[in-house]
Amino acid sequence: GEEVAQTPKHLVRGEGQKAKLYCAPIKGHSYVFWYQQVLKNEFKFLISFQNENVFDETGMPKERFSAKCLPNSPCSLEIQATKLEDSAVYFCASSRDRLNTEAFFGQGTRLTVV
Amino acid sequence: KQEVTQIPAALSVPEGENLVLNCSFTDSAIYNLQWFRQDPGKGLTSLLLIQSSQREQTSGRLNASLDKSSGRSTLYIAASQPGDSATYLCAVAIVYGGATNKLIFGTGTLLAVQP
After folding, report:
1. 3-class SS letters over chain B
2. For chain B, what percent of residues have pLDDT higher than 70?
3. Which of the residues A50, B15, B70, B99 has an alpha carbon 20 to 30 A from that of A24?
4. Euclidean distance between CA atoms B49 and B65, whole angstroms
């Protein structure tokens, strides 16, 4: 596709429930990354992938967050046992490769934990 | 640790005015700098990408400059229109340990162009 596609657009989960978010990067892009936007303009890096391999996961709260990018499938970000503080907009982005190329962002998934 | 700051935090201008948004970063070791706009409730739209070896990039009414040594970038918007109203974010692509490339975002400038 010509744009980064994220689903669902909105997700509501009760505290303790699981949440799974999906991202289809632009065709031909080998680098995918996830960001969490909690406050209005505060973007927190979570994880990046080079194809299906984790490249940098230094931003991931490892106890409850996991992510995958498998061949021929959308990438996914999963949160086990959601907490209120996980409420945020989660953005996925892709770029052609990891150095010196433009990053394109999806429309985001708004997760609300109640 | 790389920190990216944008000034002003908010700006309101009448339609037709030229304006400048500022972005500063603390570590000059960057691969590139990218300007985005974010409309309320929407994703990020890429506006301009400046490689670390470049001084400026232009797209339509937008011109972005980069001074890596002083850690500054500016986004110039000519003849502003109400449709330019959005939050503008700059982000620098950093590498550390020779292995990663992630974007560090600025704090954003909320622009309102009054008709």
Report:
1. CCCEEEECCEEEEECCCCEEEEEEECCCCEEEEEEEEECCCCCEEEEEEEECCCCEEEECCEEEEEECCCCEEEEEECCCCHHHCEEEEEEEEECCCCCCCEEEECCCEEEEEEC
2. 96
3. B99
4. 10
Per-residue confidence of chain A (114 residues) as pLDDT tens digits? 689 999 999 999 999 999 999 999 999 999 999 999 987 778 999 999 999 999 889 899 889 999 999 988 999 999 999 999 999 999 999 998 876 688 999 999 999 999
Tell me which chain A residues have a C-beta less than 8 angstroms from the C-beta of B102.
33, 45, 48, 56
Nearest-Cα distance to chain A for B35, in Å, is 10
Q: Which residues on chain B are in Cβ contact (under 8 Å) with A91? A: 43-44
Which of chain B's residues have a Cβ under 8 Å away from the Cβ of A93?
Answer: 44, 103
Interface contact B33, partner A, CB < 8 A: no
Res. B94 pLDDT band, cuts 50 70 90: confident
Alpha-carbon distance of B46 to B38, in angstroms, equals: 9
Of A91, A99, A107, the CB nearest to B31: A99
In the stretch 57-76 of chain B, residues with CB closer than 8 A to chain A read none
Contacts of A67-73 spanning 24+ positions with Cβ under 8 A = A67/A34, A69/A32
